[in-house]
């Protein structure tokens, strides 16, 4: 489940959203090429510019939908937990054994304690046939871990290599865990590069998510 905040011309509306509704929102955002920002807590921010016509006057205004999982995943994604989630994602026959309270798939088995943690933290979903898959929040959280972004402090004052008076440089670099790097004239420009990169890779990942058949 997610907390949903919708920003519109009249203000904001808050409520709850199921995983199915979140996927529907992602599908619509992909289809309409809205900006998609996937967050480390397992949520998302979908934003776009809406247009309203009254007579011959057209007004543009920002719209957005933010989803925050009831159980944020960022702190739960330890190295061991990520390993278990990748195991689950590696096969199509991952199952939950209600008698032994473990998860199995192929030749591996996730022990009771780890299985309980995965379920309690909302990192997996189990259907009525005991099939298991990563929750949407877990998938987004894992993706966001690989795309943590930052911008560097401006270079500041320095002396030219060939000598001369001290100079000031506002240059900054936009960086992402995935290896993306872009030099910019100042930090604001670097932040724009970072935002553009997140929207690009977030949109690509969202297209993969909505194209996958539901298995749980």
Summarize the structure.
31% of the residues lie in helices and 35% in strands. By secondary structure, the protein is α+β, with helices and mostly antiparallel strands.
SS-based structural class? alpha+beta
Termini separation comes to 15 Å
Q: What value does the average pLDDT take?
A: 91
Largest sheet, if any? 5 strands, antiparallel
How would you characterize this protein structure?
By secondary structure, this protein is an alpha+beta fold. The protein is 31% helix and 35% strand. The chain has helices spanning 19-31, 79-89, 112-120, 136-145, 187-211, and strands spanning 2-8, 11-17, 35-38, 44-54, 57-69, 95-97, 102-105, 108-110, 124-126, 132-134, 149-151, 156-158, 167-169, 172-176, 181-184. Strands 2-1-5-4-3 form a five-stranded antiparallel sheet. Strands 6-7-8 form a three-stranded antiparallel sheet.
Furnish the topology, listing elements before pairings:
Elements: E1 2-8, E2 11-17, H1 19-31, E3 35-38, E4 44-54, E5 57-69, H2 79-89, E6 95-97, E7 102-105, E8 108-110, H3 112-120, E9 124-126, E10 132-134, H4 136-145, E11 149-151, E12 156-158, E13 167-169, E14 172-176, E15 181-184, H5 187-211
Antiparallel strand pairs: 1-2, 1-5, 3-4, 4-5, 6-7, 7-8, 9-10, 11-14, 12-13, 14-15
Key descriptive features of the protein:
5 helices, alpha+beta, 3-stranded antiparallel β-sheet, single chain, 31% helix, 5-stranded antiparallel β-sheet
């Amino acid at each position: 489940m997610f907390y949903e905040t919708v920003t519109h011309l009249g203000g904001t509306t808050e409520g709850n959203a199921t995983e199915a509704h979140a996927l529907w929102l992602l599908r619509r955002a992909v289809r309409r090429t809205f900006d998609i920002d996937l967050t480390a807590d397992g949520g998302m921010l979908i934003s776009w510019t809406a247009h309203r016509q009254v007579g011959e006057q057209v007004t543009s205004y920002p719209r957005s939908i933010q989803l925050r999982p009831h159980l944020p995943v960022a702190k739960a994604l330890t190295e061991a937990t990520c390993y278990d989630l990748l195991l689950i994602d590696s096969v199509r026959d991952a199952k939950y054994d209600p008698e032994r309270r473990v998860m199995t798939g192929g030749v591996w088995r996730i022990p009771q304690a780890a299985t309980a943690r995965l379920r309690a933290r909302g990192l997996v979903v189990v259907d009525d046939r005991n099939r298991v898959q990563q929750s949407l929040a877990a998938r987004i959280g894992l993706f966001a871990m690989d795309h943590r972004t930052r911008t560097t402090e401006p270079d500041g004052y320095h002396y030219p290599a060939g000598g001369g008076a001290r100079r000031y440089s506002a240059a900054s670099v936009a960086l992402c865990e995935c290896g993306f790097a872009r030099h910019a004239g100042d930090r604001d420009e670097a932040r724009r590069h970072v935002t553009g990169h997140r929207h690009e890779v977030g949109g690509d990942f969202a297209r993969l998510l909505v194209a996958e058949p539901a298995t749980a």
